[in-house]
Amino acid sequence: MNLSLARQYFSQEIHQPDEHINLAKAALYIAQEEYPDLEPEEYLNALDTMAGEVQERLPTSRYPLRLIQSLNQYLYEDLKFFGNKSNYYDPRNSFLNNVIDRRLGIPITLALVYLEIAQRIDFPMVGIGMPGHFLIRPDIPDVEIFVDAFNQGEVMFAQDCQERLTQMFQQPVNLKPEFLAPVSNGQFLVRMLTNLKYIYLKKQDLAKTLAAVERILLLLPSAILEVRDRGLLYYQLGHYPQAADDLKTYLAKIPDAEDAPVIRQLLLELGSKRE
Predict the structure, then answer these.
(1) pLDDT (tens digit per residue) in 180-192
(2) Which Gene3D superfamilies does the UniProt entry name for this protein (predicted)?
């Protein structure tokens, strides 16, 4: 399995109606660019096996809190899944295969494992893209409870979410309704890839940063800031014609952007490089 084929599979998976996107498959195709020998079916089967083991221990009364309790006991007490607080920015935390193998992850990838198992036991849950910390909640009307997959499946209410935001940002934060709104499958994948983008940027691995941006743009073709970032990465990697195209597109869309003077200067340099 080479990189281009992994990208092709990812593209095929996401270019269908959002509700039909298989999040686990798409996440494994993201990982497959990093691990070309990865076999997605192996990890999909692992999720099936986990769900089967949870199913056997479910309580007779399928109240949401009872189901969450069963899932938490299985994932965190039996399998020992943990949030990787000591090495949060390890790229392996963002790849589903590694999260399943190592039992370590960040909020969004641990949430993905939780969601996938819950879905398989007919307990639908949705991702909640709270700023700075991804959560999940049962997809049941009027059930306003949230689960923090990063913190051992801690059950939270809206007030707890507000307190968590205040702690993270170290200042009072007003809890806006959109902070606790469900995310689409596409938005879920964009958030995963954005994490990878900044992890690799921090490591100055520009080729892998570019790969993350390219996949974000497959999901959000009109995300003009990502087009700009792709252009800047092309520039740094020496792909000058592609860089010029992206940076011109950015300026055409946002001619008064704060960084427009810098981008125009780069385009002048690119013009001299192409002569």
Answers:
(1) 999 999 999 999 9
(2) Tetratricopeptide repeat domain
Whether residue 62 sits in one domain with residue 162: yes
CA separation (Å) from 235 to 22, 171, 186, 255?
Answer: 34, 38, 28, 20
pLDDT at 274: 60
Identify the band that residue 175 occupies on the pLDDT scale cut at 50, 70 and 90: confident
Using alpha carbons, list the distances in angstroms from residue 85 to 95, 137, 159, 251.
Answer: 16, 22, 24, 40
> Domain range spanning residue 150?
3-180
Q: Are residues 8 and 127 in the same domain?
A: yes
Is residue 256 a part of any domain in this protein?
Answer: yes
pLDDT digit string (tens) for 202-224?
A: 999 999 999 999 999 999 999 99
Those residues whose C-beta lies under 8 Å from the C-beta of residue 34, and which sit 6 or more positions away, are 91, 95, 208
Task: Give the number of domains in the chain.
Answer: 2
Q: 10 Å Cβ neighbour count for 208?
A: 17
